[in-house]
Structures are given as C-alpha cells and as structure tokens.
Amino acid sequence: MLNKISFYVFFCFCILFLSKAKAQSLVTISIENRGNTSRTDEVVAIPWSSLTAIKSFIDTANFSVVNAATNEKIPFQFEHKGENKIHHLLIQVSIPKQSSIDLDIRKEKAPVQNTKTYGRFVPERKEDFAWENDKIAFRMYGKELENTPKEMAYGMDVWVKSTSRMVINERYKRGRYHENLGDGMDYYHVGLTLGAGNIAPYLNDSIYYSRNYVRWKILDNGPLRTSFQLEYDDWDVAGKKVKAIKTISLDAGSQLNKIEASYYYADSAALPLVVGIIKRKDAGTLLFEEKEGIMGYWEPEMGDYGITGIGCVFVSNPMQMKLTNQQLLTISPSVKNKPFIYYTGAAWNKAGVYTSADQWFSYLSQFKHKLKNPLQILLK
User: Fold this and answer.
1) Residues 132-171, buried b or exposed e (16+ Cβ, 10 A)?
2) Is the domain covering 24-109 a CATH 2.60.40.1180 domain?
3) pLDDT lower than 50: segments of the chain
4) pTM over 0.90
5) Main-chain phi, psi angles of 374, to 5 degrees
6) Pick the CATH number of 190-372 from 1.20.272, 2.30.30, 2.70.98, 2.30.110
7) pLDDT tens readout for residues 31-44
8) What 3-state class would DSSP assign to 160?
9) Which residues on neighbouring strands pair with residue 378, listed in sequence order?
C-alpha cells in the first residue's frame, strides 16, 4: 500500500513539474533547414517585435532560450543596433540538412554567455579599430595613421587566429602582434590597396580611395554579433565631393563580415563601386564567379607564416570582375541613398579548418547558398 502511495505522489510530482516547465515557455521558436547542407553554428536574427506580438511583455532579466527536445541552453544576444530598444533576438544554432528544431523562450535566468565576438577603438595604436570573433580578426586604420606616411594603408587588415579565444586586447597589450606566440598573428600586408575586401568609388578605371576613418560608433558588442560604424570625411571623386559611412558586423562562427557601405553626394548620378583584394607577387589561386557574385583568393604560402584565404560574397550581381597587377577587383553599380551590401573575410590554413584553395572556395560558395536560402522561422 505504501509503495502505491509513494508511486502516486511521485507521479503527481512529475505532472506538476512538467506543467510548470511548460508554463515557463513564453514563446516557441521553430527553425527549419529545408536545404541539403547542414547549418553549423549559424546566428539567426528574430525580430523582437514578432516575439512581443505573441507575448506582450518579456522580462529580459529572466530570459533563456532552451532546446525543447534536449533542454540544452542556447546562446543568445539582444541586438540593439546602437539604440535603447531591442531590434532582434540573436540565437546561434546548428541544424542538420532537412531538419528542424524547436526552441523555448523561458522565464528563467540564463547562464553567463561566452564571448564569441568583440571589437573596440584602439587609441593607443594610432586609432585602429580592431574586431574579432572565434575564427578570425580584422582591423581598419584611423586618422592618426596618416601622420606616418611610411605606414599609411587604406584597406581592411586581417589578423589570423588559431584559437577561439578573444585575443586582440592581449596582442595590443604585449605589442608583439607580428609574431605568432601560439594563437596567430598579423602578417597580412595591406599598403595602399583595398586589402582584404575594402570598398571605394570607381570611375574612369580609377579607384578613388578615401582617407582613413575619422569617427566610430559601436552598435552592438557580442557575445554573438559585434557591429559598428566608421565614418569618413568627404573627399574628391572625379570632381564630386563624397562622404561615406560603413556599417560592419561580424557574427560568431563566421569567417566573413557583413559590410553596408553608404555614400553621400550632391547629384543623382550613379556612383560605381569597387571591392578589392590585394594580390601578392607570387602565384596564388584565384576565383572569379561573376554569375554567382563570389570573388576569392588563396594566397601563396608566406614561409612559416602560412597561407591566408580572402573572399568576398556579393548580395547583388556585380558588373565586372577583373585582375590587375595589384588587386582582384569586383565592380558594381550602386543606388543613391541605399547601402551597398556585401560580405568579406578571411581564413588561415594554420587554424586547421580550411587548408586548401578548394576548401576555402567551397566555403564561399556555401556561404552564398545560405544567403539565398535562409533558415525558415515560425513563432508560436
């Protein structure tokens, strides 16, 4: 008799526990991968307004995202885009091909989120702006660098990594980032080129480089997405005064940055733009896929430093891709008052993930495929 009573109490406890867990689910997010390739560690943005349309008040101080099947806590971030309000809920998921997962938003404390992206203004190093994720790191050059003409550079720089840790602060502090001390280094040369996928106006077969950025603003800073703006003073473009703002964002798990380049000028004429990758003296492997909008470069090996792969993926079809003595170039039209959007980034063979041109170019192709075939999201 006692055993029957104990079993009954235990059964009631389980029902109560399951009912409570179900009540904690404020919104369920179903994410479906309809494609034939797996999506690994992908950051998905869900409009916050869509969530609050289902649940009018969500306590962000008591908030967690949980895999409904496994009870695993899912990494997330509230994206503010430089404002006080929340624009998106960012979550990082892995979904096999032809599969789906259900995630519950629950009213409970979340564990401490691991920092997977980070960026900052670096006044102690001639006004660099440096940023990174768990795969790779980059920097853009500030106004102060123009005071040292021998070091002057226009383009985007790459800092290769062989660790998922955030390392840029350590590298600046020790001041030896041109040496590989076990986590990667800076051996990428930019010079007076577009470097690793920077952008500039292009008229009459000439690149009109701006000077370096003069103002910066961080919009979001991890743990899953770091985004910021760089503003450029006006400069002369074939007799036209042009100003620019570049919004750059980097997601955890991605080799590529999203670039939104906005150009401002007086007249209504179209302003062609060019995205470039510096070419090395020795032979490397080139990829020009005009129809798909993919430009890639697997550099020649730089001795003990290794090999860097650079790639650019375009949202809209470019006008032309071509090779010059100095750079790989993709020329595209722009629309006034609308940002030109593309993706650019890099990989290092010594990180052990992409160790050949074929692997790197395959990553770029898969990246474009994912852009054209986003994950499907249903809220309930």
Assistant:
1) bbbbbbbbbbbeebeeeeeeebbbbbbbbbbeeebbbeeb
2) yes
3) 1-2, 4-23
4) yes
5) -65, 155
6) 2.70.98
7) 999 988 999 999 99
8) strand
9) 30
